[in-house]
Amino acid sequence: MKTNKFVLVAILAFLAFDTVKAQVLDPVFPDQVFLRENTRTRKPIPYTYLREADVMWSKRVWRTLDLREKFNHPLYYPESRINDRRSLFDVIKDALLAGEITAFDNPVFDDEFKVKMSKAAIEATFVQWDSTAQTEDPNNPGVMISAPVKTDLNSNNVKAYWMKEDWFFDKQRSVMDVRILGLCPMREKADPATGEILGYLPLFWVYFPQCRPVFAKAEVYNTKNDGERRSLDDIFWKRMFASYIHKESNVYDRTVPAYLTNQLDQLLEAERIKNDIFVLEHDLWHL
Predict the structure, then answer these.
(1) What are the tens digits of pLDDT across the range 275-284?
(2) Is the pLDDT score of 152 beyond 60?
(3) Distance between alpha carbon 149 and the CA centroid of its chain, in Å?
């Protein structure tokens, strides 16, 4: 008797699961000619195990990803969510609000992932207030009073990212490798009076290895083939982005703009740092 009840429960559970699966994966009016399942079940490529004894050289650098550059557009678009695609910021925002990843505060002075942000602080970060907005006083017609307007922080407000990464030479595998450690979205800073964009403000840091399972399931537009999409994890794993270095590890712990004020000199210094890493790898194999 107990066996029959168990079989009945198993059959009902299977039918219920099959019904839910049909509702989720088989829409009545599908917006595509085939069912996309690859990205939804993807997992990030695991890192190769690394011992301290195998790292014979390493260098830490901080980069700036400017999403206004055409090569970085897959990270910026779409500005509004599309059926199966979201921008990098929307993916991070959804994961933070869902509690899948952690945000770290003090983005300017502390990028070592020490101060965790509370859920209330995270939610407050995604809200902007326009204190210059005014409206007519209902009790005194013709008199304007301050009326701050609340708006959500959207993808189109974030046009740059800071990225922290470590370059190292692994003598066990005899390769120069790189691991991204963190990302920091930067929102536009506007002049309240004129609306002119003055620069960028860092929002928070996220720990990149923790983000990888989320990024692996987030599709990115493939300019060459709509039938084979890339994921956000693919973009970073394959270094399919444009960036420039704004800081390297140094005894003063200072950024490039701290000792070079001219923008051209800053870009030349960034190229010098990048070239030093390339030359080091080249010289290791030079006889």
Answers:
(1) 999 998 888 8
(2) yes
(3) 28
